[in-house]
Design a protein that fits this description.
The chain is 39% helix and 18% strand. By secondary structure, it is α/β, with parallel strands linked by helices. Helix 3 runs parallel beside helix 4. The mean pLDDT is 90.
């Protein structure tokens, strides 16, 4: 074959495999223009394409690997060659230390391959889990993600879905055939409420844009420092002081937004565990994780879903050495019997474990109520926080002030002519004296009581100081988290 014919054959082959497809369209939106380089372009299954496109490119100038399943080609069926292409992506990501994005849209396994299809799924799951904590991994579910694929997708650090996508272990029609008729099974809305999907977007384009935004907040790998980006200053000193003066009615989401860089907050798990806020933000341009308790939800207490959500988020931040800033204003963990029966104690222990084990920079700010086990887990000695600040509005107590005051002042209301008013005064006195942040500072339990107007400046200084933090744990294979 002459050189001209060889080049003509190459052009013809490239034209046949590079035809427009949903997978390539999605990858084009994910990567910076003209940066995507496809891998294993000519791989075939029985003379046909494999149902997955793999490769690498740049996202905001940073290297990223990706694969995109294509339900329009062989139903996106997962088989030996399909999995081998994805495994190569993981192998190269491991060698180069670059993030991985998996775009899921497949009807399931390639049944004609039998056990080879099972081995293919197993190889994908092994590759993903081996890479866990080494580079950020994002699952982008834009079509059907079912069975083992759902388990693989949810093993990534973050799951982003488009509103019309499907994510389930057992097909809804199978559940229905078994007599179960749960509404919304497999939908993105249900995945968000269950804490499976971290972000749900209105359409594919916004889901892909959200993925790009998330990548920009994350380090390339576990050896990289937190990324630094351009930022817009916030000037909310007066609003923060006003929030301190009326802390019982203050909105924690607004307080956080007033402290971090303007428009930098990416909230995660918005529909799950609503008594807590978890978000990736920037402060002075430095990427950080933020945890905040929402006292206006769940009667001011953290339920098991919120606790689980915080633990998972802090664990991911710690994997990539992102500083974690925790804003505390909670009456404690939910003490309802239903929570206890559903494993609330286990989830609380998991939260305490994650905070204690984390070696990333940890800064806590006690805004209002901080009682008992919740205070210990989020801002106390167990949390091993590097720096703990408090606002003058903070109330730090081993017990709820109502309980503690009654114990300490027992018997003093016997002769009271107005026991209700006197009891209320006792509680206020307890808050201002024994439970005041100044009392906690005097005992060395917090580092400083700060003017709310200076919160942003204090946090910027702390994050910059702790950027060089190095901390080792006792030698061991791994800790045993209360699962």
């Amino acid at each position: 074959m002459s050189p001209e014919n060889r080049l003509s054959a190459l052009a013809h082959a490239q034209e046949s495999v590079n035809a427009a497809s949903k997978a390539r369209e999605r990858l084009a939106l994910l990567f910076d223009k003209d940066t995507f380089v496809e891998l294993d372009t000519f791989a075939k299954v029985d003379g046909e394409e494999t149902g997955v496109v793999t490769g690498y490119g740049a996202v905001d100038g940073s290297p990223v690997f990706a694969f995109a399943q294509d339900k329009g080609v062989l139903s996106g069926a997962v088989g030996r060659v399909h999995a081998a292409k994805i495994k190569k992506v993981y192998d190269l990501a491991l060698k180069t230390g670059a993030p991985v994005v998996g775009i899921y849209d497949s009807n399931g396994a390639r049944l004609s391959e039998g056990n080879d299809a099972l081995a293919a799924y197993g190889q994908m799951l092994l590759s993903l889990n081996n890479l866990s904590g080494v580079v950020p991994q994002i699952s982008l579910v834009l079509g059907t993600c079912a069975g083992t694929a759902a388990m693989i997708a949810c093993s990534a650090d973050f799951v982003i879905m488009s509103k019309e996508a499907e994510l389930f272990m057992t097909a809804p029609f199978t559940a229905k055939a078994n007599g179960e008729t749960v509404e919304g099974v497999g939908t993105a809305e249900n995945a968000a409420k269950a804490g499976v999907a971290h972000v749900v977007c209105a359409d594919e384009a916004s889901a892909i844009a959200s993925t790009r935004g998330l990548i920009a907040r994350l380090p390339l790998n576990n050896l990289s420092t937190a990324p630094i980006s351009d930022f817009v200053e916030t000037d909310a000193a007066a609003a923060l002081q006003a929030a301190c003066e009326n802390i019982e009615n203050a909105e924690i989401d607004t307080i956080v937004a007033d402290v971090v860089d303007a428009n930098s907050m990416i909230e995660l798990d918005k529909e799950f565990g609503k008594s807590a806020l978890t978000a990736l933000v920037t402060i002075s341009g430095i990427s950080c994780g933020v945890v905040a308790t929402r006292k206006k939800e769940n009667n001011g207490k953290l339920d098991k879903d919120a606790v689980s959500k915080i633990a998972r988020f802090v664990s991911v931040c710690d994997s990539f050495a992102l500083p974690v800033i925790t804003f505390v204003d909670t009456k404690g963990f939910s003490g309802r019997a239903a929570e206890e029966l559903a494993g609330g104690i286990r989830e609380a222990a998991k939260l305490a474990h994650v905070y204690a084990e984390a070696t990333c920079a940890k800064i806590s700010v006690v805004l209002g109520d901080a009682y008992g086990p919740a205070y210990i887990a989020l801002a106390g000695k167990n949390a091993n926080a590097d720096i703990v600040y408090a606002w003058p509005s903070a109330v730090i107590s081993a017990l709820a002030p109502e309980t503690a005051a009654n114990i300490f002042e027992d018997g003093k209301l016997k002769d009271s002519k107005n026991p209700t008013a006197d009891r209320a005064q006792m509680i206020e006195d307890y808050k201002k004296n024994q439970a005041s942040p100044f009392e906690a500072a005097a005992g060395g339990h917090i580092d400083n009581v700060i003017d709310p107007a200076n919160t942003r400046a204090a946090l910027i200084s702390a994050v910059e100081l702790l950027s060089a933090k190095r901390e080792s744990r006792l030698p061991k294979k791994h800790s045993n988290m209360p699962m």
